[in-house]
Design a protein that fits this description.
Helix content: over 70%
Radius of gyration: 21 Å
Shape: globular
Oligomer: single chain
Strand order of the largest sheet: 1-2
Strand content: under 5%
Number of helices: 21
Distance between the termini: 40 Å
């Protein structure tokens, strides 16, 4: 019962409560203090996670503190802090600024808890804590598009959440326990149909959280309807915890349940559907929303073979990190030019804003997997893990999809390098926070990719 081992989670929870209470007593003109305090809290949580050295599991094996948990404990708070910087301009002066900061910290906390969950009951708790704040965050912009996206996310979340709870109930009932060590011991001796039913229910809930097929329908609508900062959050942070939780679940499933094949098929479906749907999207955040559906398919590749291939776990962690950096940099570029949310509006951007356009160019080519960008390193790692794990057919599909994704990436990039149809005035007041995030994102992409590629 080492409560000190949960210090990063405690910091996030305390920061969320403090942001909510502090915003209730501060006037609107001073709400920025809450946002900056939340950014500091997120950074402190990441630092405490990096410095923490403890046992591999705590609380009777119900919470894991391994390398995967440590990675997400650092990555999620840092990504949340960057999201607050990206959305700083749109939230400034808002009547809901403090509530936004509080909800972001709570959703980040739920993602971290979902990552470390080594017990099905904690999986359910982390899922709810990471999901419920998203409903409010998506609807904060109060537009008709945001209202539709909120309703769609809520209904799908309720349906998939109930299915997941049903799967948990089945597995706990047949195994006689809820911790993963208990499941690993008991599930090989239970009826295969019951274990498969429970796994499919859990899989459905986690795929909704990750934004993968078949629980992907809410992602593009939410990316388009929510504010830019919130869109960056929902397309990046939730899937970090969901994929690690799914990887832990696949490992404990018995051989009587062909979990790897099912995950592999869904990975192929996600990458194909997400890439094809992104082809003709006109709205840039919605395009990235569909792109993230396809990216989850690539992230599911090492999950499918994580039980038989030792390199699958580090490959998954590598891909999560490089994807988060790249996706946040792209949304920061959109936030830096808030009048260019449509793809066609980027005509002439290369001449007027060469640095920001360069970030978009590198980011899109990185998502596609063009060497020597960061996501190329991640794709090389997950392709190798899947091939060594016996899923060569999935690698072939993934390679073809990667080539096809060049279409929507080059469509956006080529538009930026075209001459504007009419002269546009330069943006006089570009958000300082967004430009800072863009620059840092670009530097991180370049700085990470080259050494990692050499090492690989």
């Amino acid at each position: 019962m080492d409560y000190g081992a949960l210090l990063p989670e405690i910091v996030l929870m305390g920061g969320a409560i403090a942001a909510l209470l502090g915003g209730s007593f501060l006037p609107r003109r001073r709400q920025a203090f809450v946002t900056w305090s939340a950014i500091v809290v997120a950074c402190v949580s990441a630092v405490t996670a990096a410095l923490r050295i403890g046992p591999p599991t705590v609380f009777s094996d119900s919470y894991a503190l391994d390398d995967a948990t440590t990675t997400i404990r650092i990555l999620v708070p840092v990504a949340t802090a960057i999201v607050m910087l990206i959305g700083r301009q749109s939230s400034r002066g808002s009547a809901r600024e403090s509530e936004t900061a509080s909800l972001l910290l709570l959703a980040a906390l739920g993602t971290v808890v979902l990552t470390g969950a080594n017990d099905l009951l904690i999986v359910a708790t982390g899922f709810l804590l990471a999901t419920v704040p998203l409903y409010a965050l998506i609807g904060l912009s109060r537009s008709s598009t945001a209202a539709e996206a909120t309703m769609k996310t809520y209904l799908l979340g309720a349906i998939f959440g109930v299915v997941m709870l049903f799967g948990i109930a089945v597995l706990v009932g047949v195994a006689g326990g809820s911790t993963y060590p208990e499941l690993q011991r008991a599930l090989p001796h239970v009826p295969a149909a019951a274990a498969a039913l429970g796994f499919i229910g859990l899989l459905a809930g986690l795929l909704f959280k990750a934004g993968a097929v078949p629980g992907h329908f809410w992602v593009p609508d939410a990316a388009e309807g929510a504010g830019i900062g919130i869109a960056a959050f929902i397309t990046t942070v939730p899937k970090l915890g969901a994929l690690i939780a799914l990887a832990r679940l696949v490992v404990v499933m018995p051989d009587t349940v062909d979990a790897p094949l099912l995950v592999g098929v869904l990975a192929a479906a996600s990458m194909i559907l997400g890439t094809l749907a992104a082809f003709w999207q006109r709205n840039a955040p919605r395009l990235l929303g569909w792109s993230t559906v396809g990216q989850v398919g690539f992230m599911l590749m090492p999950v499918a073979v994580i039980g038989v291939e030792p390199s699958a776990r580090p490959a998954l962690l590598t891909y999560l990190v490089v994807y988060a950096v790249t996706n946040l940099a792209l949304f920061a570029a959109i936030a830096a030019l808030p009048d260019r949310t449509m793809v066609r509006s980027w005509r002439g951007a290369a001449r007027e804003h060469p640095v920001i356009t360069g970030v978009v160019l590198v980011g899109l080519l990185s998502l596609v997997g063009t060497p020597p960008t960061a996501v190329f390193v991640g794709k090389l790692a997950v392709f190798t893990a899947a091939w060594e794990g016996g899923m060569s057919w999935l690698v072939v599909i993934a390679a073809a999809v990667s080539v096809a994704s060049l279409f929507y990436a080059l469509r956006w990039v080529s538009t930026a390098f075209q001459r504007p149809a009419a002269p546009r005035s330069r943006t006089s007041a570009v958000q300082l926070q967004a430009v800072t995030a863009v620059t840092l994102g670009a530097l991180i992409i370049v700085a990470f990719s080259v050494p990692a590629l050499v090492q690989w």
